[in-house]
Write a structure and sequence with these properties.
ANK repeat; 48% helix; two-stranded antiparallel ribbon; Serine Threonine Protein Phosphatase 5, Tetratricopeptide repeat; mainly alpha
C-alpha cells in the first residue's frame, strides 16, 4: 500500500498536474490524517516528504499529532516529530485540547479501566496495559519535544496536572512532577477555575489512591492554604468519614512530607510525615 501511495503522488507530480495531497474526505481528513488514523507511520512519512501539511485539521480541529496522541500511536508521533516540517505542539482542537491533553485523557481512561482488574478477563487486562504503555510513550515523546506542561485546556482551564489528579492517576502524576523539575514555576499550584490540583485531590471520592496522591502533592510543594473561588481550602473539600479524616489530618499538617525509599524486590517510594 505504501508503494502505491508514493507511486500515485509522484506520478501526478511528474506529469506537472495538480496533485491535491491535502485533499479532504467527508470528515475533513487529508490523506495524512487518514494514514495517521490507520496507524501507518511509513505512509505518513512519505506523505510528509511529498509535501503534506502536518498541521492540517479535520472537521473537529484535530491535527495528525492530536490523532496519534489520542489513539496511542508512538511510531506515528516519532515520524511527525522527526520531519523537517515540525508540527504545532500547542494547537488546540475544537474541544480545547492540545495533543498532550489528548494523550493524557486517553491514558486516564485506560487507567480507570485497568482499575477494574478483578472484573476483567486477563487477556483484556493485558491488552489495556499494553495500550497504556504505548500512550505513555506518546506522552514521553511529546514532553521531550517541548510540549508545555502548563498548557491549560480552553474549556476548563485544566493543566495536565489537574487532569491526572481528577482521574486518580498516581503514576502519571508522579511522572509529570518528576519531568517538570522547575521548568514551570509553581506548576504544582496552578489553578483551574480557582482550584489547584490539591483541591481536586482532596475532593476525590472512593479513590484508592487518594492518600498517595495527596501525600505526593504535598511533598512536592502543593500549598494547602490556597483558597478557590468559593474561598475554600483543600481541607474543606474532603468527603466525610474515617478515610476523609485521615486526608484532613494530612492537609492540616501541610507541606511536611518527606520521601522514603524502601529496598524491596521492586523498589518503591513511600511517603511519611516528618517528626
Amino acid at each position: 500500500m505504501r508503494e502505491h501511495v508514493c507511486a500515485v503522488v509522484e506520478r501526478l507530480q511528474g506529469l506537472h498536474k495538480v496533485c491535491q495531497i491535502d485533499a479532504r474526505e467527508h470528515h475533513g481528513k487529508t490523506p495524512l490524517l487518514v494514514a495517521v488514523t490507520a496507524n501507518q507511520p511509513h505512509i505518513a512519512y512519505d506523505l510528509i516528504r511529498l509535501g503534506a501539511d502536518v498541521n492540517a485539521v479535520d472537521n473537529q480541529g484535530q491535527t495528525a499529532l492530536h490523532m496519534a496522541a489520542k489513539y496511542g500511536y508512538p511510531e506515528v508521533i516519532q515520524v511527525l516529530l522527526s520531519t523537517s516540517r515540525m508540527p504545532d505542539l500547542e494547537v488546540f482542537d475544537f474541544e480545547g485540547h492540545s495533543p498532550l491533553h489528548c494523550a493524557v485523557l486517553t491514558h486516564n481512561r485506560l487507567h480507570c479501566e485497568t482499575q477494574q482488574k478483578l472484573k476483567l478477563p486477563k487477556r483484556r487486562f493485558d491488552e489495556l496495559e499494553s495500550r497504556k504503555l504505548k500512550v505513555m510513550d506518546c506522552i514521553g515523546f511529546l514532553v521531550q519535544a517541548g510540549s508545555c506542561l502548563a498548557s491549560q485546556d480552553i474549556k476548563s482551564s485544566k493543566s495536565v496536572l489537574h487532569l491526572v489528579v481528577q482521574a486518580g492517576n498516581y503514576s502519571l502524576l508522579k511522572y509529570f512532577l518528576e519531568v517538570n523539575t522547575g521548568t514551570v514555576p509553581d506548576f504544582i499550584n496552578m489553578k483551574a477555575h480557582g482550584n489547584t490540583a490539591l483541591h481536586m485531590a482532596a475532593a476525590l471520592q472512593n479513590e484508592s489512591q487518594q492518600e498517595a496522591i495527596v501525600r505526593l502533592l504535598l511533598a512536592c510543594g502543593a500549598d494547602p492554604s490556597i483558597r478557590n473561588l468559593d474561598n475554600e481550602q483543600p481541607v474543606h473539600l474532603v468527603q466525610p468519614g474515617a478515610a476523609g479524616e485521615k486526608i484532613q489530618a494530612l492537609l492540616r499538617r501541610g507541606k511536611g512530607l518527606m520521601p522514603v525509599i524502601h529496598s524491596t524486590s521492586q523498589q518503591s517510594t513511600r511517603w511519611h510525615d516528618t517528626p
